[in-house]
Amino acid sequence: MKPATFTYHRASSVRDAVGLLSELAEEEPKLLAGGQSLVAMMNYRMARPGHLVDITHVPGLAGIRRSTGDDGRAILRIGALTTHRAVEKADLGPEFAVLSRAMRWVGHLPIRTRGTVGGSIAHADATAEWCLLAVLLDARIVAEGPAGRREIGAGEFFLGPFTTALEPDEVIVEIVFDRPAPRAALTEYADRRGDFAVVAAGADLDTGSVVLGGVATVPQLVRAAGTPDEIADALDLRDEPGVPAAYRRGLARTLVARARAEAAATTEEDSNG
Ligand SMILES: Cc1cc2nc3c(=O)[nH]c(=O)nc-3n(C[C@H](O)[C@H](O)[C@H](O)COP(=O)(O)OP(=O)(O)OC[C@H]3O[C@@H](n4cnc5c(N)ncnc54)[C@H](O)[C@@H]3O)c2cc1C
Predict the structure, then answer these.
(1) Which Pfam families does the record associate with it (predicted)?
(2) Contact 135, 216 (CB under 8 A)
(3) CATH code reported for the domain at 184-272
(4) Looking at residue 268, what is its pLDDT?
């Protein structure tokens, strides 16, 4: 299937993109990044933007920057146009290696090569790895709009299915991870390799937090989480066509235990050199 008619614009800067989004607001403009979600939705006519604002040529939006905070902690800034594959291949140090390791769960290689971190966060699929990682690690999403830049905590960013706190004329510029998580892991179950997860679970042993995807319309963070049984039993799940609640509860139980075991094993690997 082919998409409905649209007008293509190539933005030269973030300010230019914001200006186009504001100016064309009445005609449903959409930003185009890797196109791995948006173009498929357009082809299926699930999205019919009147205008596409291509940000892939905006300088400075791709790349990973590491710095050190005043307290000596590592800070990671991932530009919105950075691809999943670039993160997978990067050496992020033990503090943020969980991000690279988690990328193997994102689709197939061609999708990881084109799809972007900012696009994933903006698309806000409740099982998307980036959404889960951002919530688990208390990341901040930096967005630019007509009034300038603002930061939104990941915990307040995801509002519902494919719905975020982003204004229609805002562009995600970067995602900031400033709480190192050397003892963290993400794991999941999908029906076929490369598919979106049925259920995904992440664990950070330093905070004791667990995040679950596929069990609600937004990533579910459980702080000071209990045993896998306690976490799974507390989930508010309903039967869905082909996916009984009990099946997802069982997956959640297994995956939380697995994520914790993988996080602990990672630490042992690091200390064994
Ligand atoms: C077969 C298949 C399997 C997949 N499997 C997975 C998977 O397992 N896990 C997973 O996480 N993803 C998966 N994906 C999706 C993939 O990760 C996409 O890359 C991602 O969801 C969107 O990123 P994108 O750069 O392609 O964004 P696009 O498709 O270009 O855009 C997606 C949405 O985000 C908006 N947007 C893009 N960039 C910005 C920005 N900087 N600021 C504000 N809004 C922006 C767009 O306007 C659009 O609404 C899969 C895709 C396919 C086709």
Answers:
(1) FAD_binding_5
(2) no
(3) 3.30.390.50
(4) 62
